[in-house]
């Protein structure tokens, strides 16, 4: 057997990654770094251990400390969102969705946001709902005026005609709040799942929208996007807890214990030290969108105020499309991802790019920094220059 990389080679690649991405402008909307205060605690003995089951009711011994931490972590989030059920064992938002979607199946029918309108892959035919769970999937109707949001009246008609087991709100391309309240008013008994992966940090600090107060039954999330914690997932619910048995023993065995103390520490710090973090995110996103528009870029949803979340979406058809623009920006150490827009025919060669400001906001970037960044975008993409980022 021939090994192409030596131990030292791997060490060097790690070092290069650390140096490179630390020097980049990171605008991937689904990423963030952990708070600097908690990062040193991420590597701990819990990463070597198992704790199958629930706190204080395990299948393994040696769990007395993780029992305390995991229980406290669940209780902390329950109190924060004023709910009765919390499961922090999913190791990603996708795993959280798989557990919830599995627990709600009756007739096998569900309504979600389509991929072109920003819906997440786990909500659709080629992902968890279709490929793994074999649901019959219908999509919400999108507004003609703003295809990034649902046409509420038409979507209500679809729900009445299709009679799904549940609906899934929330998106991967997520600029504006979802119509939870309007749907709940029309369907008092309908199970509403809200995938808040992208906006969970905003929700945690009381921004964007209040899904449980508006009528959602279950909220799933990632803990590493606008919420600046370790990579993982979480499920919150008013009372429904059938997903617990699908998390374990159904899907997850070892749920990566070392992230749980860091998750709890992050939540505490957001409440005590970083109280304005989400507010700065949303202000920076809107300002960045305005500045890009002023520089001549086609920023989506200008009439609607561009964005209410951490995300900014550009239609870069005139600049060569999403992939070409993402490549050009990466040459200048600005990292974004190509993204299909509602009118695109291909996800392989889409016309858009999706950006999130949460990581650079955490690094301390202000509105003036994003004004400078918009100017660099112009130099790179409109003037054909090099920004020397």
Helix content: 25-40%
Order of helical and strand elements: HEEEHEHEHEHEHEHHEEHHHEEHEEEHH
- The domain tally reads 2
* Largest sheet data: 7 strands, mixed
Average pLDDT value? 96
CATH class of the largest domain: Alpha Beta
CATH topology of the largest domain: Aspartate Aminotransferase, domain 2
Through-space gap between termini: 42 Å
Radius of gyration: 21 Å
CATH superfamily of the largest domain: Type I PLP-dependent aspartate aminotransferase-like (Major domain)
What's the number of extended β-strand segments?
A: 15
- Described by the principal axes of the CA atoms, the overall outline is globular
Low-confidence stretches: none
- What is the overall number of helices? 14
The CATH architecture of the largest domain can be named as: 3-Layer(aba) Sandwich
| Structural class determined from secondary elements | alpha/beta
* β-strand amount: 5-15%
Molecular structure report:
- By secondary structure, this protein is α/β, with parallel strands linked by helices.
- The chain has two domains: 233 residues, Type I PLP-dependent aspartate aminotransferase-like (Major domain) (Aspartate Aminotransferase, domain 2, 3-Layer(aba) Sandwich), CATH 3.40.640; 107 residues, Alpha-Beta Complex (Aspartate Aminotransferase, domain 1).
- Helices cover 38% and strands 14% of the residues.
- The protein contains 14 helices and 15 strands.
- The strands form four sheets. Strands 4-10-9-8-7-5-6 form a seven-stranded mixed beta sheet, with helices on both faces. Strands 11-12-15-14 form a four-stranded antiparallel beta sheet. Strands 1-13 form a two-stranded parallel ribbon.
- Helix 2 packs parallel to helix 10 and helix 11 packs parallel to helix 14.
- The chain is globular and about 65 Å long.
- The mean pLDDT is 96.
């Amino acid at each position: 057997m021939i090994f192409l990389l030596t131990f030292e080679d791997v060490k060097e690649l790690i070092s290069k990654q650390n140096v490179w991405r630390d020097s980049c402008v990171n605008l991937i909307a689904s990423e963030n770094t952990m708070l600097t205060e908690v990062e040193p605690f991420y590597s701990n003995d819990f990463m070597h251990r198992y704790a199958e089951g629930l706190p204080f009711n395990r299948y393994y011994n040696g769990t007395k400390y993780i029992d305390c931490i995991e229980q406290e972590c669940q209780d902390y989030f329950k109190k924060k969102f004023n709910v009765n059920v919390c499961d922090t064992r999913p190791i990603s938002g996708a795993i959280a969705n798989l557990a919830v979607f599995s627990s709600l199946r009756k007739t096998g029918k569900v309504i979600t946001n389509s991929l072109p309108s920003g819906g997440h892959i786990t909500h659709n035919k080629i992902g968890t709902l279709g490929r793994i769970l074999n649901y019959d999937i219908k999509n919400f109707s999108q507004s003609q005026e703003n295809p990034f949001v649902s046409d509420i009246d038409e979507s209500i008609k679809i729900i009445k005609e299709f009679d799904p087991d549940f609906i899934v709100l929330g998106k991967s391309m997520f600029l504006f709040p979802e119509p939870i309240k309007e749907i709940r008013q029309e369907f008092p008994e309908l199970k509403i799942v809200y995938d808040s992966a992208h906006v969970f940090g905003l929700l945690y600090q009381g921004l964007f929208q209040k899904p449980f107060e508006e009528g959602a039954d279950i909220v799933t999330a990632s803990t590493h996007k606008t919420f600046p914690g370790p990579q993982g997932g979480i499920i919150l619910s008013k009372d429904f807890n059938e997903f617990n048995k699908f998390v374990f023993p159904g899907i997850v065995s070892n749920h990566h214990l070392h992230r749980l103390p860091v998750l709890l520490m992050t939540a505490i710090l957001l409440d005590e030290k970083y109280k304005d973090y989400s507010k700065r995110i949303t202000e920076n996103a809107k300002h960045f969108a305005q500045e890009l528009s002023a520089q001549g870029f086609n920023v989506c949803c200008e009439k609607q105020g561009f964005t209410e979340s951490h995300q900014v979406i550009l239609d870069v058809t005139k600049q060569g499309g999403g992939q070409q623009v993402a490549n050009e920006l990466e040459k200048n150490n600005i990292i974004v991802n190509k993204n299909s827009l509602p009118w695109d025919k291909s996800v392989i060669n889409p016309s858009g790019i999706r950006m999130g400001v949460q990581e650079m906001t955490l690094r301390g970037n202000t509105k003036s920094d994003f004004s400078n960044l918009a100017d660099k975008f112009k130099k790179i993409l409109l003037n054909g220059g090099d920004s020397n980022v």
